[in-house]
Amino acid sequence: MKTKAFTKTYARRVVLSLPEIELPEGKITAVIGPNGSGKSTFAKVLAGIEPADDRRPVLSGVSVGYLPQKSFPFRMSTEKNILQNGNDPARASALMKALGIEALAGQSAKKLSGGETARMALCRILMRRYDLLILDEPTAAMDMESTLAAEECIRRYCDETGCGVLLITHSISQARRLAHQILVFHEGNLIEQGATERVLTSPQEEQTRRFLEFFGV
Predict the structure, then answer these.
(1) What is the pTM of this model?
(2) Which of 30, 109, 186, 212 would give a disulfide with 217, using CB separation of 3.0 to 4.6 Å?
(3) Helical H runs in 71-142?
(4) What CATH fold (topology level) applies to the domain 2-71+130-214?
(5) Rounded to whole angstroms, how far apart are CA atoms 62 and 68?
(6) What is the pLDDT of residue 217?
(7) Strands 6-10 and 21-22
């Protein structure tokens, strides 16, 4: 699937100016770049949470699932939270087990820790099949073990559904583990894109090289 070129302006300041971008089906695309480079705004515009400047959808005829940076629980049990996005108790149980929260199924979701809430929210979004799944820092609140389990769930979801996945991440190692291609944002622009290993080992742009060097890549 391909996004339309668009701009996004806040208070007369252009925060995004992007060309058409190809998001392959059945592949994971990671978006990396410094804080303030427009990654989360890109996710919100694609998901329809924020409009582009011309008010036209950036994606047409595409079902989109969106998991924002800040996960939220409804005032009900963990399992019922997950079932809000698909009435399939067997799938909910399998996802909770894969992410290590099956023992919390009956607990009030409002009592979950930050990492547990993040795992619950990931379970919830993975209950349904989408054409494009947008995940904004889905593992930021998780420890290493939970992060690896979450990555495996994301990878399996992509393989089983053929869904395109857009992963916003600050973790270069996570992008390397999961992504088939990488988009690099800088000051609201797409400055580099390509296969993951090519971008990480042979960046073409100076801003990309400096960004990767900061993380020891």
Answers:
(1) 0.96
(2) 212
(3) 78-83, 89-98, 114-125
(4) Rossmann fold (3.40.50)
(5) 18
(6) 76
(7) unpaired
Find, among 60, 145, 132, the residue nearest to 99 by Cα: 145
Residue 201: Cβ-neighbour burial (10 angstroms; 0-12, 13-18, 19+): exposed
pLDDT tens digits, residue range 85-123? Answer: 999 999 999 999 999 999 999 999 999 999 999 999 999
Q: Is the dihedral of CA 188, 194, 199, 203 positive or negative?
A: negative
Please state the φ and ψ torsions of residue 113, each to the nearest 5 degrees: -75, 175
The answer to whether 65 touches 132, Cβ cutoff 8 Å, is yes
3-state DSSP percent of the chain in helix, strand and coil, to 5: 40, 25, 40
Rounded to whole angstroms, the Cα distance separating 135 from 126 reads 11
Cβ contacts of 90 within 8 Å, gap of 6 or more: none
**What are the b/e assignments for 67-95, b being 16+ CB within 10 Å?**
bbeebebeeebbbebbbebeeeeebbeeb
At residue 59, the pLDDT reads: 94
How far is it, in rounded angstroms, from Cα 48 to Cα 52? 9
Q: What is the DSSP string of 133-200?
A: EEEESTTTTS-HHHHHHHHHHHHHHHHHH--EEEEE-S-HHHHHHH-SEEEEEETTEEEEEEEHHHHH
Phi, psi of 2 (to 5 degrees): -130, 135
